[in-house]
Amino acid sequence: MLTKKPPVLQSFLSLVSRRASHLARQQYDVIVVGGGHAGTEAAAAAARVGAETLLVTQKTNTIGALSCNPSLGGVGKGHLVKEVDALDGLCGRAGDWAGIHFSILNRSKGPAVWGPRAQLDRQRYREFIQSELLSTPRLTVLEGSVEELLVTEPNPEEPGHHRVTGIHLANGSHPILASSVILTTGTFLSGSLFVGQTTSPGGRIGDAPSSAGLSHTLRERLGLRIGRLRTGTPPRIVKDTVDLSLTNLHPPDSHPTPFSFLNTHTRCKPEEQLPCYLTHTTPGVDRVVRESLHLNCHIQQDTKGPRYCPSIESRVLRFPGRRHQVWLEPEGLNSDLLYPQGLSMTMPPDVQLRLIREIPALHRAEIHTPGYGVQYDFVCPTQLSPALQVKSTQGLFLAGQINGTTGYEEAAAQGLWAGVNAARSALSMPPVALSRTESYIGVLIDDLVSRGVTEPYRMFTSRAEFRTSLRPDNADLRLTHERSHKLFEVRCVSSLRYQEAVRVRDGLQDALAALQTLTLSTHLWRKKLPDIGISESKSTILTGMDLLQYNNVSFEMLASVFPECLSPYMEFSQRLNIEAVYRPHCDLQKKEIERIQKEENMTLPQDIDYFSLPVSLSQEVREILDRVRPSTLGAATRLQGMTPAAVVNLLRYVQHTGQRGRRTHRNQPDQKEEREEELCARNASLPQ
C-alpha cells in the first residue's frame, strides 16, 4: 500500500486564497503562521482535531519546501518521523513518496538506535505536502505576511497576563480573529542573511523578510525573553561538473524501509534509487578558510550556531588540520544539482568556488547557488508549557525553530503537538501532554520547556532515558494505540490508522502468545535447530520467546520448524525479533518509568509564589523555579540547579497540598457537578 499520487501543483495554488478579502470568513478556531515543516504539521493536526484552521504563509509555492538538505530522518530524527507518522502527521508519508535513497543508519548497533533516513526529491516532497493540505477538511490557506498579533486583556479565569485573539496582515486588511494562534516562523523572525560581508533582511534566500512588527509584539508587548541563533546552508553544485570517479560510492539499502506504518513500500523502486558519494576536505580547504576570515562577517558573530551541523569555517577553526567528510547527495531524480553536506559556508561566492575546488572530486565544479548564513530570533522555550503554549499569554502557541531547535523533524514534531493543543484549546478541551517515558516527542518538548537552549537543539537517541522502549519499530503501538483514548476520540488519529494499529497489536500479541506456547527442553531444541548455540551443559525448558533472544536465532527459523503455528505471523517477523531482544530490558525499566510518570502527574500551580513558599528552598532554587515555572514535579527535577534536597522538599509540599485539597473536597459535597467534570477532564489529560 502506498499513498495515492498527489494532484498537480497548479491545482493547489489555484485553490489558495490570495488575499484576506477572498476569505469566506474572518474568524477561525486556529491560525497557523508559517508554511514550513512545523506550520504544515500544525495546520493539518489542528484541522484533524476539528478546528476551523487558517494557514498563513508568505509564498504558497514554498509550502513544504526543503530549505536546506533534501533529506529526512537519521539517528534520533528518524524516531521523530516515525512518531509523527504514528500520530497521523504528514512528513513520514511524504518521505515515502519523495524518497530517492533509503537507508537505515546505525544498523551495526541495536535496533533501538537505528536511524531510518531518506534522501528526497525536493519537488516530489513539496507537491505531496501541498496535496495533503489541499485535501484536508476545515483547512484554508492564505498567502500573506503577518504584521502583528492582536493582543487583548486576558481571561481572568485562566493563567496569563495577555491574550492573543488573532492577527493583523501587513497589507492593512481587516484583522483575522482566532481562539488560538500558532507561530511557526522558522528562521524568518527578524532574520538576516549573510554572504561574505553582505547582510540583508530575510529568512531564506529568494523570499521576502518577515514583518518587524511580529518580533516587536513578542518582545515589547508580551514581554517574552528573546534570543538570537544562527544557521547556514552550503552551495549547490552542478552535478555534471563533479568528477564522481574520485569519490566513494555509497549505494542505498537494497530494500527501502518506509517511514509510515501505513505503507508497505515506497514510491521509488529499489532499482530506481540514486547513490550518494563520499569525499573529504584537504589542507587547501583549511587554507582558503583562514585566508578569507576577514571577508566573512557571519563567522565573526558571537551568535550560537548548530553544534552538530557546523559550517566548514567553524570546523576548520575548531579542529585545525583535520580531514572532514563531505557527502555529495542528489537533490532529485531529475535534478542536475548535488547537495554537499558538510560544506555549509558564508564566505563570498568567489571564495566559495575557490574552496570547493580544493577538493579533488570538485576541482572543476561549478556552483549553481552560493551558500549563505542566517541569523534569527527565537523565544526562550522555558516560557512555554508542555502543550507548547506561552505560559504568560493565553491562546498563543509556538513550534519549530522559534523555540530554538534545528531540523525538519524536530520542527514537524513540535508543529503537530502544538496543532493538537491549539485546536483543543479553541474547542474548550483540556491540553494533552506526552511524557518523555513514552516518546521522543515527549523528550524533545520536555527538554525545551524544562531546560531551555543555549544553541540550536537537535534530537539524539542519547537524550532519551528509555531508548530500549522508545524504538522506531513500536512507535505505532506506543502512540497510535496507547494514546487512542485521548487522540482518536478527538480525530488526531484517523479511523484507518487506528484500525491498522489495533490489527498490528492483536497480531503481535497472538504471535508472542504462540511463541510462549512453544516449550521444549534444551535437548529437543538442539535437535530441531542444531546450529543454535545452546550449551550442552544447560538443561532446562525454553520457550520460543527464549530462543529468539539468541543472536543466531530468528523468527523465520522458528517458523520454518513450526509452520503450523508461526507462519501466519510472518509479516511481523522483524518486529518479533526486536521485541524478543528488548523485552527483558523493558521489563527492568518499568519501575523507573512508573516513578517518573508518578512525578509527572504531580502538577505545580502556575500562579504559585515560589519566593514566599513555606518550604526549605535556597534563594537560587526559588529563582530557578520562578523563572521556568515547571508544570509538574517531574519537570522540576530536570531543571539545572535543582538539588536533590530541593526536590524532596518540593515533593512534600505537593503531597501536603494534595491531601489538604482532598480534605477540602470532602468537606464541600455540594460543589457543582460541572466543576467535578472539568477536574476529571483535566486529570484525564495528564500523561499516564
UniProtKB/TrEMBL annotation:
What InterPro entries has UniProt attached to this entry? FAD/NAD-bd_sf (IPR036188), GIDA_C_N (IPR049312), MnmG (IPR004416), MnmG-rel (IPR002218), MnmG_C (IPR026904), MnmG_C_subdom (IPR047001), MnmG_C_subdom_sf (IPR044920), MnmG_N (IPR040131)
Q: What is this protein called?
A: Mitochondrial tRNA translation optimization 1
The protein's GO terms of the molecular function aspect are: flavin adenine dinucleotide binding
Q: What cofactor does its activity depend on?
A: FAD
Gene3D superfamilies cross-referenced by the UniProt entry = FAD/NAD(P)-binding domain (3.50.50.60), GidA associated domain, C-terminal subdomain (1.10.150.570)
Q: Where is the tRNA uridine 5-carboxymethylaminomethyl modification enzyme C-terminal subdomain domain?
A: 580-652
A Pfam family assignment = GIDA
Q: Name one GO biological process term.
A: mitochondrial tRNA wobble uridine modification
Q: Where is the composition biased (Basic and acidic residues)?
A: 667-680
Q: Which GO terms describe its cellular component?
A: cytosol; mitochondrion
Q: Keyword Cell cycle: yes or no?
A: no
What keywords are assigned to this protein?
Answer: FAD, Flavoprotein, tRNA processing
